[in-house]
């Protein structure tokens, strides 16, 4: 994980996720003093034949009206995953 600063000025951590050979996504998350985890955006690139063809899914909280979401644990049937809003 690396550190980054969003357009709104928050210090956050970025996670580089390879979702498939066709998409590369870098997510930005930060934790506030109350322990809440915030989802502050993502830099998404879609590839065809090794060339970026789209970054349509990219967004950043505070840019063009985009809002941060909060991440919470979802525990069902013994499974734990993160849900962002």
Key terms for this structure?
65% strand; 85 residues; single chain; eight-stranded antiparallel beta sheet; mainly beta
Helix-strand layout with pairing:
Layout: E1 2-5, E2 11-20, E3 23-31, E4 37-48, E5 51-54, E6 59-60, E7 69-76, E8 79-84
Structural features, described:
This protein is an all-beta fold and about 80 residues long. The chain has one domain. Helices cover about 0% and strands about 65% of the residues. It has no helices and 8 strands. It starts with a strand and ends with a strand.
Distance between the termini: 22 Å
Q: What percent of residues are in strands?
A: over 45%
Mean of all residue-level pLDDT scores: 77
Helicity level, as a percent range? under 10%
Based on secondary structure, the structural category is mainly beta
- The beta-strand count equals 8
Count of spatially separate domains: 1
Secondary-structure element order, as H and E?
A: EEEEEEEE
Uncertain runs: none
Global shape: globular
Largest sheet: 8 strands, antiparallel
Number of helices: 0
Oligomer: single chain
C-alpha-based Rg, rounded: 14 Å
């Amino acid at each position: 994980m690396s550190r980054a600063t969003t357009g709104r000025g928050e210090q956050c951590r970025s996670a580089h996720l390879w979702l498939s050979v066709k998409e590369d996504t870098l997510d930005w998350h930060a934790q506030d003093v109350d322990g809440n985890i915030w989802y502050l955006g993502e830099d998404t690139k879609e590839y065809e034949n090794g060339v970026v063809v789209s970054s349509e899914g990219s967004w950043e909280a505070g840019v063009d009206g985009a809002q941060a979401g909060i991440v919470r644990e979802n525990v069902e049937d013994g499974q734990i995953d993160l849900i962002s809003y």
